[in-house]
Amino acid sequence: MALAVRDGVLWAVAKGFQNVVIEGDSLQIVSALSDHSCDRSVIGHIVEDMRIRSTGFLQSLKMCVPMSATKATPWPIDSLAIA
C-alpha cells in the first residue's frame, strides 16, 4: 500500500498538481504522512520519500477511509484518485 501511495504522489508531482487529496484505507500510512516526526517503522523510508516529493504541493489533504466505504465510489474508476 505504501508503494502505491508513493507512486500516486510521484504521478501527481509529474503532472504538476498542486492541490492533492491522498486517501487510503491504511490508517498507518495516512497517520505517518500526517505526522512530521521521524518514522522508524518498516515503511519509514517510503513515507519520508513521499514527504520530500510532496513539498511542492500547495495543499495536500490526507484521509483514512474505511475499506467498506471505498467499494461504492460515486466517481468513475478512471477519475483522479491517489491510492
From TrEMBL:
GO terms for molecular function: nucleic acid binding; RNA-DNA hybrid ribonuclease activity. Residues 3-52 form the RNase H type-1 domain. InterPro entries: RNaseH_domain. This is RNase H type-1 domain-containing protein. It comes from Malus baccata (Siberian crab apple).
